[in-house]
Amino acid sequence: MKIIKTILVATTLLALTFVGQASEWRALDPENTVLLTLPHGKVVIELAPQFSPNHVKQFIKLTREGHYNGASFYRVIDGFVAQGGPKDGSPLDKATKKLVLEGEFSVDENFTFTQVQTNDMFVEQTGFKEGFALGYNSKEQKAWMLHCPGVIAMARQTGADTATSHFYITIGQATRYLDRLMTVFGRVVYGMEHVQAIRRTEVVEGDTPVDPKYYTRMLSVQVMSDVAPSERINIEVSRTDTETYRNKIADRRTRDNAFFFKKPPPVLDICQTPVKSRRVK
Amino acid sequence: MKIIKTILVATTLLALTFVGQASEWRALDPENTVLLTLPHGKVVIELAPQFSPNHVKQFIKLTREGHYNGASFYRVIDGFVAQGGPKDGSPLDKATKKLVLEGEFSVDENFTFTQVQTNDMFVEQTGFKEGFALGYNSKEQKAWMLHCPGVIAMARQTGADTATSHFYITIGQATRYLDRLMTVFGRVVYGMEHVQAIRRTEVVEGDTPVDPKYYTRMLSVQVMSDVAPSERINIEVSRTDTETYRNKIADRRTRDNAFFFKKPPPVLDICQTPVKSRRVK
Question: Which helix (H) or strand (E) holds B277?
Answer without folding.
Answer: strand B277-280
